[in-house]
Design goal:
Elements (H helix, E strand, L loop, with lengths): L23 E6 L2 E6 L18 E2 L7 H14 L3 H7 L12 E7 L9 H12 L7 H8 L3 H9 L3 E7 L19 H14 L4 E7 L5 H14 L3 E5 L6 H12 L4 E3 L5 H13 L4 E4 L11 E7 L16 H11 L3 E6 L4 H8 L4 E5 L10 E6 L13 H12 L3 E5 L8 E4 L15 E4 L4 E4 L5 E3 L13 E4 L3 H11 L5 E4 L7 H12 L5 E4 L12 E6 L13 H13 L10 E6 L5 H8 L2 H15 L6 E9 L2 H13 L2 H4 L4 E13 L2 E10 L5 H10 L8 E6 L6
Parallel strand pairs: 6-11, 6-12, 7-9, 7-10, 8-9, 10-11, 13-23, 14-21, 14-22, 20-21, 22-23
Antiparallel strand pairs: 1-2, 1-3, 4-5, 15-19, 16-17, 17-18, 24-26, 24-27, 25-26
Helix pairs in contact: 1-2, 1-10, 3-4, 4-5, 6-7, 15-16
The chain binds adenosine-5'-diphosphate and zinc ion.
Length: 716
C-alpha cells in the first residue's frame, strides 16, 4: 500500500536481499519514487515479467501487525481510503533519508603544538567530564571560548571529532523517581488503573473527577506501571498550550522529559520522535491526536485527557475522532485506555453506564480546595447601559475581589471586538466575500476576520452596500470589547486578555498564563482557552458574561457543550485554599441546563439528556453520518444531493433515513458551495457498508468533492 491516492494494493517484486511484511519501502510509481508499506504477498494476478521491483527497504523498523490492523479498521470505520491512513502513519519528515549524523567532540590523544589559555580551558572542561562528548557549540560555550579554538584542537588530535546519529533515544524515565502520597479515593483509582495496565489486555476506563481532584496524579500512576513493564505510553492533550506544564510534571515524576509530538515541534525533532517511537527509544509520548498514528512498538497505555474536548475531532482531511480511534487502537495492542474528564462526553458517560467502560470517580478536590459556589445573575432584573455587558451585581463582585488582592475571571466565548458590524444607514451586516459567515471585527488588528474561512480585510470606512460613510457600528461583545468595558469600570485594575488570536505563538501565550498565575493581573478576560486545565491559585471569582450562548442552538450537543464549558470555567475559581464563586449572567435562570450547572446535580443532567437523545434515536443511542458535497457550481451539488436522497435503497435496507440535501452549516467556503445530507441509523446496523453501497451508485463528477463524516460533531 502506498501513500499515494490510489486505493488498492500494488504488486512489486521484492528487492535484492528480500523484504518482509510491514517493511517501509520506496517503490517506483510512474516516473516517481514513492513511499509504501509491504502489506503481504501478492496474489499473482499480474504477469511477473511486467512487475517492477521495490527500489529499497527503508532503514526503519517495520510497521507492526497491530498497526496495520488498526489502519485497516480505522479506514473502514471512517470510510477513508487505506492509502490516506497509511499517509497519516508516515507523516514524519525525512523518512527516506539515511540516518542523519552530527559531529561531536571528546578528549583526544594528541598534544597541541602550543598551549594558549583558551585551549587550556577546553581541555579542562573535557578533563572534568571524563569520557563525555559534546557538540561544538556546547563545548565552546562551556569553556567560554570561540568554536575555532575547539576546531584548532581537533585538527591536532588533542580533541577527537566523531560522527554520531542525530536521532538519539530519549532519556530513560524512572517509574519510581518520585511520587506524591495519594489520598482518599485517589488510591483505589490508581490501583485499578495500574492493574488494568498490568493485565496486558484491552480495557477502557472513564476517570471522572472535578478539576483539581488529582486525575493527572492518578493517571501518571498508570504511566508508571506501564514504564515498569517496559511498555510504551501515550498521553493525548487537547491543546498545545497545555503541554509545557505537563512536561514539567512528567519530569518531576519520572526524572526526565518525554517525547513531544504536535504541530509546534520542529521537523528534526519530529523525525527523531517518529524514529525513536518505532525503535523503542521513546517510552512516553505526549502529544496531539495525530500521535495515535506513531509507530509504537509496544503500546500499553493511552490516556486521553479532557476526553470531551471538541478538538479531538479532526474536521479536515481524514475525519476522525481521536478519542474513538484511541479505543480502537488499544484493542489491537492490548492496551488500557484512560479517558479523563471532569465533564465527560455523553458518549463516554453512556458507555460507562452500559458497562462497556469501567468508571472511576474522584469525588473531592485535593487538599482544601472546594468546588466554587455557583449562582445565577438574572439579567431580566439588572440595569445595563446600552453597549455594556457587565451587570451591576457582577461589577460589585469583581470590585470586591480586586480590593481583596484576589483575581477575577470574566469569561466570554467570542473572539474579537464585536461579532457583527452593522451599517446604521442601510442595515447591512458585513459578511465574508467567500463564505456565508459574518465578518468579526478585530480592533486589535484593525481588521475584519472571518472565523469560518480565515479571510481578513481592513475595516472599511464606508458601507460596502450603500456606500454611506461613518455609519458602521459594532454590535454585541467579543473579548476585546469586553476588555474596553472592564478598563472603563475598573480603571486601576491590571487587566489581561487571553484569546488565542492575540498571541503570536504558543510560547507567548504560555508565558502570559504563567505570569497571570503568579499574580500578574487582577482581572482576566478570556475565551474558551481559559476553560482548559490552567491553574490560577489566586483566582476566586468567575463571571460568565453570557451563559445563554449555546443554549438556543438547534445543535444536538448544544446543551452538553454549555454544561461542560460552564462547569469547566467555574472550575477555575478557588482551586487553592480560598473558596471560589462563579456567577452566571443569564436571561433564562430556569433553563434545565443552567439549573443543572447551578445545583451541581451532574448525574441528573446526564440522565435527562440521555433520555432525550434515546427518545430521538440520536447518538449515542443511534448512529449518524454527514455527507458533504461541495463544488463551485451550486446546481451541481444540489442535483447530486437530490439524486442521493431519492436513491436511498441501500440505506432503507438497514432502517436508516436520509435528511436533506440542505445547505451545510457553512454553506459556502472559499467560493465552494456546500450541501449536506444527514443519515440517521439505528444503533447496531452495518452503517458503513450501507453507505459504501449507496454512494457507489452515483457517478461523482471531477469538479465535485464528496466527504463522509461518521459520527459528526457539528450539526445542522
Ligand atoms: P486534575 O488533573 O484532576 O485537574 P491534578 O492531578 O492536576 O488534578 O491535581 C491538582 C493539584 O493537586 C496538582 O497541583 C497536584 O499536584 C495536586 N495533587 C493532587 N493530588 C495530590 C496528592 N495526593 N498529593 C499532593 N498533591 C496532589
Ligand atoms: Zn469566510
Amino acid at each position: 500500500m502506498t501513500t499515494q491516492p490510489i486505493d488498492r494494493f500494488l504488486d512489486y517484486k521484492s528487492p535484492e536481499g528480500g523484504c518482509n511484511t510491514g517493511d517501509f519501502v520506496e517503490v517506483p510509481l510512474g516516473p516517481r519514487k514513492v513511499l509504501g508499506v509491504v502489506w503481504g504477498k501478492g496474489e499473482g494476478r499480474f504477469d511477473p515479467s511486467k512487475i517492477r521491483s521495490v527500489s529499497r527497504v527503508l532503514d526503519v523498523p517495520p510497521m507492526g501487525k497491530d498497526m496495520r490492523e488498526f489502519l485497516v479498521r480505522s479506514a473502514e470505520y471512517t470510510l477513508t481510503p487505506l492509502s490516506q491512513m497509511v499517509r497519516l502513519a508516515t507523516r514524519a519528515p525525512g523518512l527516506f533519508d539515511p540516518p542523519s549524523m552530527r559531529k561531536i567532540f571528546r578528549m583526544g590523544t594528541g598534544t597541541p603544538d602550543r598551549m594558549t589559555p583558551a585551549r587550556e580551558k577546553v581541555l579542562a572542561v573535557l578533563e572534568d567530564y571524563g569520557d563525555m562528548s559534546f557538540t561544538l557549540k556546547e563545548l565552546a560555550d562551556m569553556a567560554g571560548v570561540t568554536s575555532s579554538v575547539v576546531k584548532g584542537l581537533a585538527k591536532q588530535g588533542a580533541v577527537r571529532e566523531e560522527d554520531t546519529p542525530r536521532d538519539v533515544p530519549f532519556p530513560l524515565l524512572r517509574h519510581d523517581f518520585s511520587g506524591v502520597a495519594l489520598e482518599g479515593d485517589q488510591n483505589g483509582a490508581a490501583l485499578e488503573l495500574r492493574e488494568g495496565v498490568a493485565d496486558r489486555a484491552y480495557s477502557t476506563v472513564l476517570l471522572k473527577g472535578v478539576t483539581g481532584s488529582g486525575k493527572t496524579e492518578v493517571y501518571l500512576e498508570a504511566v508508571a506501571e506501564c514504564l515498569r513493564l517496559g511498555r510504551q505510553a501515550l498521553v493525548l492533550l487537547p491543546e498545545i498550550a497545555l503541554t509545557a506544564e505537563f512536561l514539567t510534571r512528567v519530569e518531576k515524576r519520572f526524572g526526565a522529559k518525554p517525547a513531544e509530538w504536535h504541530s509546534g515541534v520542529t521537523m528534526t525533532e519530529r523525525r527523531r520522535v517518529w524514529r525513536m517511537v518505532g525503535a523503542g527509544g521513546a517510552e512516553l509520548v505526549v502529544g496531539a491526536r495525530s500521535a495515535l498514528f506513531l509507530p509504537f512498538r509496544d503500546l500499553g497505555l493511552i490516556v486521553v485527557d479532557e476526553e470531551h474536548d471538541t478538538s479531538y475531532k479532526q474536521e479536515e482531511g481524514v475525519l476522525y475522532s481521536a478519542r474513538d480511534m484511541a479505543v480502537l487502537r488499544a484493542t489491537y495492542c492490548a492496551a488500557e485506555v484512560v479517558l479523563a474528564s471532569a465533564t465527560p462526553s455523553l458518549e463516554t458517560w453512556a458507555n460507562a453506564e452500559a458497562g462497556k467502560y469501567k468508571r472511576l470517580d474522584l469525588s473531592s478536590r485535593f487538599g482544601e480546595a472546594q468546588l466554587p459556589e455557583m449562582r445565577a445573575i438574572d439579567m431580566r432584573s439588572e440595569k445595563l447601559a446600552s453597549n455594556h455587558w457587565i451587570s451591576p451585581t457582577l461589577k460589585a463582585a469583581v470590585q470586591m475581589r480586586v480590593d481583596a488582592g484576589e483575581q477575577a475571571l470574566l469569561f466570554i466565548n467570542r473572539r474579537g471586538y464585536a461579532p457583527t458590524t452593522l451599517c446604521r444607514a442601510c442595515g447591512e451586516q458585513i459578511g465574508c466575500d467567500f463564505c456565508d459567515a459574518r465578518m468579526v471585527e478585530h480592533r486589535f488588528q484593525k481588521r475584519l476576520v472571518c472565523h469560518q474561512c480565515g479571510e481578513t480585510k481592513p475595516m472599511p470606512i464606508e458601507c460596502p452596500s450603500c456606500k454611506v460613510e461613518g455609519k458602521l457600528a459594532p454590535v454585541g461583545p467579543g473579548v476585546e470589547r469586553l476588555a474596553e468595558e472592564v478598563n472603563e469600570l475598573f480603571p486601576d485594575a491590571r487587566v489581561a486578555v487571553l484569546s488565542s488570536d492575540l498571541f503570536s505563538s504558543a510560547r507567548a501565550l504560555k508565558e502570559q498564563i504563567v505570569s497571570i498565575a503568579q499574580g500578574g493581573a487582577d482581572i482576566v478576560i478570556g475565551t474558551q482557552l481559559v476553560a482548559k486545565g490552567h491553574n490560577f491559585p489566586n483566582l476566586t471569582l468567575v463571571g460568565v458574561i453570557d451563559a445563554d450562548l449555546g443554549l438556543q442552538g438547534s445543535d444536538l450537543r448544544a446543551a452538553e457543550r454549555s454544561f461542560q464549558l460552564m462547569r469547566q470555567v467555574s472550575g477555575r475559581a478557588g482551586r487553592a485554599a480560598k473558596k471560589g464563586t462563579a456567577l452566571l449572567q443569564t436571561f433564562q435562570p430556569e433553563h434545565p441546563v443552567i439549573r443543572a450547572i447551578l445545583s451541581g446535580e451532574e448525574e441528573q443532567f446526564w440522565r435527562a439528556e440521555a433520555a432525550e437523545r434515546m427518545e430521538a434515536g440520536v447518538p449515542p443511542y443511534g448512529r449518524m453520518a454527514g455527507i458533504v458535497l461541495s463544488s463551485t457550481d451550486i446546481q451541481e451539488v444540489f442535483d447530486l444531493g437530490g439524486e442521493m436522497a431519492r436513491l436511498d435503497g441501500p440505506l432503507r435496507a438497514i432502517g436508516a433515513q436520509v435528511f436533506g440535501p440542505a445547505p451545510a452549516p457553512i454553506a459556502r467556503v472559499r467560493g465552494r458551495h456546500r450541501v449536506r445530507l444527514l443519515v440517521k441509523a439505528p444503533k447496531n446496523v452495518p452503517l458503513q457498508k450501507a453507505l459504501t453501497k449507496w454512494i457507489a451508485q452515483f457517478k461523482i463528477p471531477n469538479t465535485l468533492r464528496l466527504s463522509v463524516d461518521i459520527d459528526p460533531q457539528n450539526f445542522f
